[in-house]
Amino acid sequence: MDNTIQLLNKSQRQSLGDGLNWLNQSWHLLKTRFGKWLLVGTIFLLLNIAVSWILGFLAQLSGVSWIFDLIDSVFDTFMVAGLILAIASHAENGDFEIADMFSGFQLPVQKMIVVALIMHLPILLANLFAIEQLPLSIKWLLHLLSYVMWFMLPLVALHGLEPLSALKMSISGSLKNILPALGFVILMSFVFGGFMLGLVFILMLLLGTNGITMNSINPLATEQSATASLLMILIFYFPFLLMMLFVLMSVYFSYRNIWTNSPLK
Questions:
Q1: 218-249 residue pLDDT tens
Q2: Contacts by 23-31 with C-beta closer than 8 Å and gap 24+?
Q3: Cα atoms in the Cβ-side hemisphere of radius 13 Å centred on 190
Q4: What is the rounded CA–CA span in Å between residue 74 and residue 241?
């Protein structure tokens, strides 16, 4: 029996519950290699921070910031494509290598530059026109543009489609499946909103207890400040990292659910 995942000619219309399943499938995948994914996510974030800092510094020196913003967007696109390829390897083969996260750099450069330009168009427009001053209708239009590009990168990275063909298919699949996407966003908001509230509560307890103990033993505020800063970094970094991994894994599972013959029900 052929278990090869094949791309369909037309996207499937899925139900509201499928959006919840994307999150469930993402959690199931994440927990099977939890430590490895945390390491990959950390490497990804640190690399992006370092590259953004270097490019930002060069942009200040040159005075031509948009060129370096574009380079940053292209780099991000290659990196995200690598993560999607690593997620696909894990989901389809049962495991992945940490080096898989860099496999996006093996994809055709011209295609990826076009993908980066298209996918970052809403961000570039928002920056160009100062998003806080835009009418609400235009803001919603920019959000819609971002949403309809949801499937574009996996279609290019996993099937080698041309960027414009992938964009057309992504628009079609996205507009057909607004309900499951809405279900996913609502559940994601509840899960991570509750998680963040819980972590903030724990942080307040830890800081309160730690402050009393340290004040009674050692009045130096520098240690207390360092402890508080470390706790805040850890508590806010961890949910952000998890959310990033969940979103990228959900991109893969939603693509597979809507555009392939292996929807993982």
A1: 444 455 556 666 666 667 778 889 889 999 99
A2: 23/184, 23/187, 23/188, 23/191, 23/246, 23/250, 25/249, 25/250, 25/253, 25/264, 26/245, 26/246, 26/249, 26/250, 26/253, 27/246, 29/87, 29/90, 29/91, 29/249, 30/242, 30/245, 30/246, 30/249
A3: 7
A4: 21
Alpha-carbon distance of 179 to 168, in angstroms, equals 19
What angle, rounded to 10 degrees, do the helices at 221-259 and 65-93 form?
Answer: 70
Cα dihedral: 211, 215, 221, 227 (round 10): -40
Sign of CA dihedral 90, 94, 98, 99: negative
pTM: 0.84
- Please tell me the distance from the alpha carbon of residue 42 to that of residue 262, in angstroms, as a whole number: 30
Give, for 66, the enclosing helix (H) or strand (E): helix 65-93
Domain ranges of the chain: 16-259
* C-beta of residue 5 within 8 angstroms of C-beta of residue 256: yes
